[in-house]
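Researcher: Sequence recovery benchmark, item below. Answer with residues only.
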């Protein structure tokens, strides 16, 4: 039987972070609402010369060794922070990462669910052409109106996943449960740089989807709840994973106490507490957080993954952690990446939040701020200009 799963994976994030204590001070809110009520401590933010393309390139670079590039068949770029209505953000990666010409590249969209959709497409592509690997990327900047209730749940990150027939981290099971429900809980019209959200509706849409995907997964003969060692959830804020886990357990007749919920999902929330919402990347940074921070050996254990994208579409899927996975992780790099971010003051954050780029095609240079391998250098003739350092 063909084994299909994740061979390698890495996270990248923005140059900056804002401690939520700064935001709480400014907004006159008890910071415990953020720390405890939302389960968030910080959020990442992109510098003037960063965007979803530079974060995606930084996430993908470490997993694209020369021999991997020659085996690459497709790049699937999931995002809801698109930079162009026509050209896929993934195509820019060809120049930045020196990717081969004989690859297919597309952008995938359905709110935060898009990277899970891309992953399912990638599995189908590998099943069709097992000697080719697929690079799946989720890259987003989550941006809400300043002063609104969504503001503390902003964030930025990219995750790159190498999907292949030689998985070293997790091998996926074929059965998945899906659920779509046309809802206006969160959306971003083309003319808006910030998302519109009905916060309470979005939470109940997510929890309805938890039940919906699980019922579909069970109806299709999926593994029982008791088979799972851990569950990873999409984390718009980490407390949402707690709500989702409690709901899934209840759906299986198990009433968990708050400490039990916390204990069972704690290792999946280590990165997202500090990254903030990274939309498409969030579920997969939860998976890497689990693999890199759980104190149990998860080899051979079944993990459940629940992706939710507002609007709304959700999927529950699962996989078995590969024996020896510890030798293929990048936990130290990810800790370093978080530690290396530069702390923002509230004033600088506000300036970056409200900054806009020219739309008249004039030549414009971004200041040199970020220190990573890739820069969004500026604009000319309505084109984005990127640089690899
Ligand atoms: P809010 O109205 O400011 O917060 O918005 P609240 O009053 O509901 O409080 C939040 C929690 O903090 C509550 O706990 C309070 O009790 C607690 P809960 O009842 O939920 O357990 N609290 C405190 N705890 C300790 N000390 C205190 C204190 N004060 C209050 N002093 C909301 C919260 C999440 C709605 C808002 O931040 C928001 O709209 N966020 C954006 C939308 C969102 O993240 N929705 C989640 C589901 S939708 C989703 O996941 C998809 C998404 O990622 C987008 C996509 O798919 O592309 C968003």
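Model:
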């Amino acid at each position: 039987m063909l084994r299909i799963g994740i061979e390698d994976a890495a996270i990248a994030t923005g140059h900056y972070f804002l401690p939520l204590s700064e935001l709480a001070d400014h907004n006159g809110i008890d910071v415990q609402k953020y720390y405890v009520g939302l389960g968030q401590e910080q959020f990442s933010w992109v510098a003037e010369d960063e965007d979803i393309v530079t974060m995606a390139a930084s996430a993908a670079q470490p997993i694209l060794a020369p021999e991997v590039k020659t085996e690459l068949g497709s790049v699937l770029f999931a995002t809801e922070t698109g930079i162009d209505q026509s050209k896929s953000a993934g195509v820019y990666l060809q120049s930045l990462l020196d990717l081969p010409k004989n690859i297919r590249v597309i952008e995938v969209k359905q709110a935060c669910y898009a990277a899970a959709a891309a992953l399912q497409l990638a599995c189908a592509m590998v099943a069709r052409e097992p000697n080719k690997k697929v690079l799946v990327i989720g890259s987003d900047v989550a941006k809400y109106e300043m002063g609104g209730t969504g503001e503390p749940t902003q964030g930025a990150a990219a995750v790159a996943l190498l999907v292949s027939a030689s998985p070293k981290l997790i091998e996926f099971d074929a059965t998945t449960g899906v659920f779509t429900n046309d809802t206006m809980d969160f959306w971003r019209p083309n003319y808006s740089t910030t998302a519109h959200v009905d916060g309470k509706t979005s939470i109940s849409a997510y929890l309805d989807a938890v039940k919906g995907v699980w019922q579909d997964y069970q109806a299709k003969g999926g593994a029982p709840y008791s088979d799972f060692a851990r569950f990873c959830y999409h984390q718009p804020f980490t407390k949402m994973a707690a709500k989702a886990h409690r709901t899934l357990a209840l759906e299986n007749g198990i009433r968990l106490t708050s400490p039990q919920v916390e204990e069972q999902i704690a290792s999946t929330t280590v990165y997202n507490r500090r990254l903030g919402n990274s939309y498409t990347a969030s579920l997969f940074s939860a998976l890497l957080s689990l693999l890199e921070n759980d104190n149990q050996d998860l080899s051979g254990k079944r993990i459940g993954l629940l992706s939710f994208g507002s609007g709304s579409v959700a999927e529950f899927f699962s996989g078995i952690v590969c024996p020896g996975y510890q030798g293929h992780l990048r936990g130290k790099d990810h800790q370093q990446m978080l530690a290396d971010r530069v702390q923002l003051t509230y004033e600088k954050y506000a300036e970056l939040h409200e900054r806009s780029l020219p739309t008249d095609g004039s030549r414009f240079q971004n200041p040199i701020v970020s220190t990573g391998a890739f820069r969004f250098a500026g604009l000319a003739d309505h084109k984005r200009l990127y640089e690899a350092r």
